[in-house]
Amino acid sequence: MEGPVEVELEDGSVVTSDRFRVALCTCRRSRRYPWCDTSHRDRV
């Protein structure tokens, strides 16, 4: 996705990223959830 991006989480809170390009985390392993930080690569 290309930014800026706003995402509404399950609890109703909204997080924003003003980065040019972002990736959403779908595995929930990211320390920066909902933004992907490639943590999924460390676990098999």
Automatic annotation (TrEMBL):
<keyword id="KW-0479">Metal-binding</keyword>
<keyword id="KW-0001">2Fe-2S</keyword>
<dbReference type="InterPro" id="IPR042216">
    <property type="entry name" value="MitoNEET_CISD"/>
</dbReference>
<dbReference type="Pfam" id="PF09360">
    <property type="entry name" value="zf-CDGSH"/>
</dbReference>
<keyword id="KW-0411">Iron-sulfur</keyword>
<protein>
    <submittedName>
        <fullName>CDGSH-type Zn-finger protein</fullName>
    </submittedName>
</protein>
<dbReference type="InterPro" id="IPR018967">
    <property type="entry name" value="FeS-contain_CDGSH-typ"/>
</dbReference>
<keyword id="KW-0408">Iron</keyword>
<feature type="domain" description="Iron-binding zinc finger CDGSH type">
    <location>
        <begin position="2"/>
        <end position="44"/>
    </location>
</feature>
